[in-house]
Amino acid sequence: MARSPKRRLPGGRVSKAATKAIVQAKTRADDSETAITPVSTISTRRFRRGGVANLVVMSISAGLVGTLAIPAYAFTPGSEDPEFATTAAAALTKADPQSVDVAAEASAAPVSQDTLAVTTGASIQEAAEAEAARQAAQTAMTSYAASYDGPSVGDFLANPPYPNFDLASVYSVATQYIGVPYVYGGATPAGFDCSGFVMYVYAQFGVSMPHSSAGQGAMGTPISESAAVPGDLVIMPGHDGFYAGGGMILHAPYEGASVRVQPIWTSDYSIVRIGI
């Protein structure tokens, strides 16, 4: 900046006007510097303060990242206390891999599936027919009991009319009942079922038998068919009768039929003899 020339008074003194001009010029120069300098100074101070702040923020951030990077269990308070100790279950999970043997049949366990039973018209009809048959049998038994007043099996066992037992006589007595109707559960001449017929005949010879074809078969001794004679018993699954000779059987067959002689219709049978 150009300086104003100083006016000097005689004797080397500066005039008042010149002094005033110098002061004003200096003042203006100082004001100019003052107007410019604060901007630079402020910027420099802001920069210095901003740099320090940035350094502080960066330091704090680095500390936070380092803290997060450390495993959480490193900061667990009282981790050595019993309540923070590793449990047996946790220790097992950190152990070597484990394996479990499973039986082959366990992996192929059968799976059952519920089924829905549907009642059809045919099944209803079958049930109705079965109930009708049951009621008919009950009616037959009622009339059967009312229609017979002769000796029973118990009466014969107490006083056998044929005390001398032989198979020919047994068969002869059995033939007297040909034509008697089949009645389920019957054991008198009013009506026989298969084992009731055999039981009633043998009772007249003083031989007590169960009212069961299997039980009667268990009482006898198995023999070959070539050795069989009339009066021996033919035993089938769920049925029996008297051997009639020549591959024939005398028996009470089924409901709606009567005591009769007919060929043995199956190979699933055996012959047993009572009294030996």
Automatic annotation (TrEMBL):
User: What superkingdom does the record give?
Assistant: Bacteria
Q: Name one GO molecular function term.
A: cysteine-type peptidase activity
Ranges that cross the membrane: 52-75
Q: Which InterPro entries match?
A: NLP_P60_dom, Papain-like_cys_pep_sf, PG_Endopeptidase_C40
**Pfam name, any one:** NLPC_P60
Residue ranges of domain NlpC/P60 in the record: 164-276
Keyword entries, A-Z: Hydrolase, Membrane, Protease, Thiol protease, Transmembrane, Transmembrane helix
Which GO biological process annotations does it have?
A: proteolysis
Q: Which family does it belong to?
A: Belongs to the peptidase C40 family.
- Name under which the protein is recorded: NlpC/P60 domain-containing protein
